[in-house]
Design a protein that fits this description.
Strand order of the largest sheet: 2-1-4-3
Number of helices: 3
Shape: globular
Largest sheet: 4 strands, antiparallel
Order of helices and strands: EEHEHHE
Distance between the termini: 7 Å
Strand content: 15-25%
Helix content: 25-40%
Length: about 120
Amino acid sequence: MGLDMYAMISDESFEREVDFKPGQDMGELHYWRKHPNLHGWMKTLYFEKGGEQQDFNCTPVTLTEADLARLEADIKAGNLPPTEGFFFGASDGSESEDDLAFIAKAREAIADGDTVFYYAWW
């Protein structure tokens, strides 16, 4: 039990950037385990895009090129928000290289015409 975090890709376009129901045709792009500060960053993005689920659990948020650029800048500046939660574990800063590798993969997927979205299950 704990914070499992996924970046997924789909060839679908969704009407909303949050709280949509992806179809069956999606694939896993990246996985994180217990990286709460990244999850906190994604939660902020989710609410900025109009998300309504207060606990931000098992609900998607799309990631655009602009979102990825902002995320990359925040990772490099050490600005992921300290985030805590039940069974979330702790981010220790060693995740940056993996986070940047995810951003590179996500940019490729977007360039190929896929939709990239994040969701977590805890």
